[in-house]
Amino acid sequence: MKRLRLRLLWCLPAACVAGLLSWAAFAPLAAGSRDALFEIPKGTWARRMAGDLVDILPQKIVLTLGVNDTLLLRNKDSVPQVFGPVLIMPGQDFRLPFDTVSVNEFNCTAHASGSMKVIVEPYPAPGLPRLQWRLAQLTQKPRKAAARG
Amino acid sequence: MKAGVFDPPRPAPEIALPSSTGTPLKLSDYRGKVVVLEFGFSHCPAVCPVSLASLAAAKQQLGARGKDVQVLFVTVDPARDTAERLRSWLANFDPGFVGVTGSEAQVAQVLKDYGISAAKHPVKGSSEYSMSHSSYLYFIDRQGRQRAMMPFGRPAADIAHDLAILLGP
Q: What CATH architecture applies to the domain A2-148?
């Protein structure tokens, strides 16, 4: 009886983990806003002119079709910023939707390197791809939070 | 919209240059119409003809509403794209399309105002040159505001979709 109780104690967490993984692998991805916001903060240009080469935006942005497939660029700087062929004025947003899996290189004046890559990945299929996608989100979120902090 | 959208939209920079119609063109004269700006050159082997053909098809898809859409093709190669050349070349796509040209300095100013990059490249084994240039389409609404930009290669149906939104009910 004691051994049975012990087994049950082990089985319960295992069943919970299995259930959680199954949910993560098969549940549809919630699609609220599909915007992936990237903000060019006030003072970016001034810092660049002062010789500060820090990158405000990531060098590479990964978007997922059907989940977050719209790049929202917000220019909070006091000078216009060029993103690819787009001139974004101070205080202006530019919302660029993507509808195909692709790798896109853009010139970007907010980057010290002068360019930025936008990778558009397919909507993750049910099963392992969706599970991997969710796990990747979990690991990316703390990294983003740390970068902001 | 299918295109990239500006929020808030800002007034489209004025363009006042010679045109393929034989009379000087002012962008602001087209208030009340939806204007699509394309920047390119008539010797372009691939990108510009495809975009112009898509624009012509989109205009057709809009039917009678297409009369309120004006396509302006601004050359990035004013040395070769005279008003006469643009007129005859654009007529291959739609007789209503208007070409815009000018001196090198005049065109350079317009390109700067719109954030357009264009550069000459020599063609190997020839005295001719080609141009690399931004290939987005610029959508300007009836109030003269720059509302959206569409990347090269989108189908005519996508262009018609966005033009219909800008034309309104």
A: Sandwich (2.60)
A58-91 pLDDT, tens digit each: 888 899 998 989 999 999 999 988 887 788 999 9
Chain A interface includes B91 (CB < 8 A): no
Kindly report the CA angle at A21 between A16 and A24, in degrees rounded to 5? Answer: 125
B6/A85 Cβ within 8 A: no
Question: Distance (Å, rounded) from C-alpha B12 to C-alpha A34?
Answer: 28
Instruction: State the smallest CA–CA distance between residue B4 and chain A in angstroms.
Output: 4
For residues A33 and A68, what is the distance between their CA atoms, to the nearest angstrom? Answer: 7
CATH of B4-10+18-124+141-167, one of 3.40.30.10, 3.30.420.10, 3.30.870.10, 3.30.160.150: 3.40.30.10
The predicted-structure confidence for B21-50, as pLDDT tens digits, reads as follows 999 999 999 999 999 999 999 999 889 999
Say yes or no: B149 contacts chain A, CB-CB below 8 A. Answer: yes
Nearest-Cα distance to chain B for A96, in Å, is: 4
ipTM: 0.77
